[in-house]
Amino acid sequence: MTARRALAWCAAGAAAFTLYGSLVPFHFRALTLARALELFGRLLEEGVSVYSRSDLLANVMLGAPLGFFALGAVRADREPSAKRTLFAALALLPVCALFALGAEFAQQFTTTRNCALSDIAAQAVGSALGMLAWAAVGPALVRQVRALWARAEPNAAGRVLLAYLVLLLMVQTLPFDVSLSPYELYKKVRDGGVTFVPFAEFRGATDERKWELYGKLAKLAGLFFPVGLLLARANGRVARWGGAKVAVAALAVALCAESAQLFVRTRAPSSTDVLVGAFAVVVAWYAARVHSEGLAVPFAVSWFVVWCAALTPAYLPRAGAAPLDAPRAFEWVPFAAAEAGEPMHVLEDVLTKLVLFGLLGALVAARVLPPKVRRGPSGSVRAAGGISLVLGLLVSALIESAQRHTGAHTPGITDVLLGGAGAALGALAARASSARAGLIVVRRSASHS
Fold first, then answer.
1. What are phi and psi of 405, to 5 degrees?
2. In this structure, what DSSP letter does residue 77 have?
């Protein structure tokens, strides 16, 4: 598949996701086209009014992938030309804006969604930013992805690590309600918004609160775990680091991520999070070094048990908690429950679950794709991705089924799909980040022949 065709499919997927998100949970009402046009005309006359900054930011982020992929589908693998790229962007931007307008117009036929001109404007701005991002980094990004997939990138893990650190910082600073006011920072520290004593949160906490804190720390450790895995696979000077240097780097990464929360109003930085995050990085680095040639069955099973144990406080109630009198209904419409939540908090939950189940995919890849016994890379990658997808769907389905009898979470098909997608993505990321090992094997084989 050519890059332009792949990007065109991505653009179609971004458009479908935008339309789906605009209409979920699909509660429609009877409305004539004439009446819909009349209501929409009144909406346009009201102008742009911003009622929620988080909704505004969510719509900007929703429009950015469409603009990025649409321009990429037109300009990828073509002769570099700033003028032609600009003309293509100017031609595509009205199309993206019209699509946003159409998706917003369709919301009038639903009973639970509200149309807003600000949403159309925000998605159009997001598309423009996405096109600007393509012009800046798109062609280089396509080349790097090809090199990773062809296993021709000498430091694939290092590049994936940098991208993941950006994602980690993003998750740690959601919902982006940033304040740079020194006075607000002073008030946050003065009023106990920062925990300086490690594990002080557990003092005097109830059993329910302690279980909630265990789940929070388990998620945090899962978010930092990929940093250690990728650090162990990186090339160059990092490959020669010992445990002491890794520990210092892990502490620095965790401290930077936690310090960024000082400027986020709704986040509470804690020294506990710094220690847990750094510890997770060191453990992951050590595990990746010990199992550098892949996982044998006993080790794979053992790490799977550890992963399941970490997920227990994150998504299930504590032992002994009273069950519900009747099982909760299972939501079969994807993202229907998320529609009622705060967009940035929903995004954090989605990204966190993708990363946590991505670790399951990396675990499968470590078993299916060990460097010294790899045979037929394409077939092995498909096997790892397929096994990860099925296993992720199965485990997440079991978790969601158990949640029907508790009041802690909303069970639904959304989390099941996220579990499968996260596991498959984790297997692919593990394969991409092992390019250095693959090259070493190829070179050794060539020398022996």
1. -100, 10
2. T
- Per-residue pLDDT tens for 257-286? 999 999 888 899 999 999 999 999 999 999
Following CA atoms 198, 201, 206, 210 in sequence, which dihedral angle do they give, to the nearest 10 degrees?
-70
Structure-block tokens of residue 169: 């910082």
Note the residue count of the chain. Answer: 449
Distance from C-alpha of 149 to C-alpha of 194, rounded to nearest angstrom: 43
Q: Which two tokens stand for residue 298?
A: 């006993």
Peptide bond into 269 cis (omega under 30): no
CA–CA separation, 170 and 152 (whole Å): 29
Q: At residue 155, what is the residue type?
A: N
Alpha helix positions (H), 150-206? 156-173, 182-190
What span, in angstroms and rounded, lies between the C-alpha atoms of 314 and 207? 15
The residues that bridge with 331 in the sheet, in sequence order, are: 412
Average pLDDT, stretch 124-141?
92
Beta-carbon contacts of 87 under 8 Å, excluding residues fewer than 6 positions away, are none
Give the other-Cβ count within 10 Å of 107's Cβ: 17
Residue 178: C-alpha distances to residues 122, 130, 350, 389 (Å): 19, 23, 21, 36
Question: What are the Cα distances from residue 434, in Å, to 30, 227, 298, 386, 431?
Answer: 54, 14, 22, 18, 5
- Three-state DSSP class for residue 324: coil
What's the rounded Cα separation, in Å, for the pair 3 and 7? 6
CA distance 399 to 209: 21
d(CA 382, CA 386): 6
What token pair was written down for 402? 């158990």
* Cis check: omega of the bond before 370, within 30 degrees of 0: no
Q: Is the confidence at residue 12, as pLDDT, over 50?
A: yes
pLDDT in tens, 157-187: 788 888 899 999 989 988 777 777 888 888 8
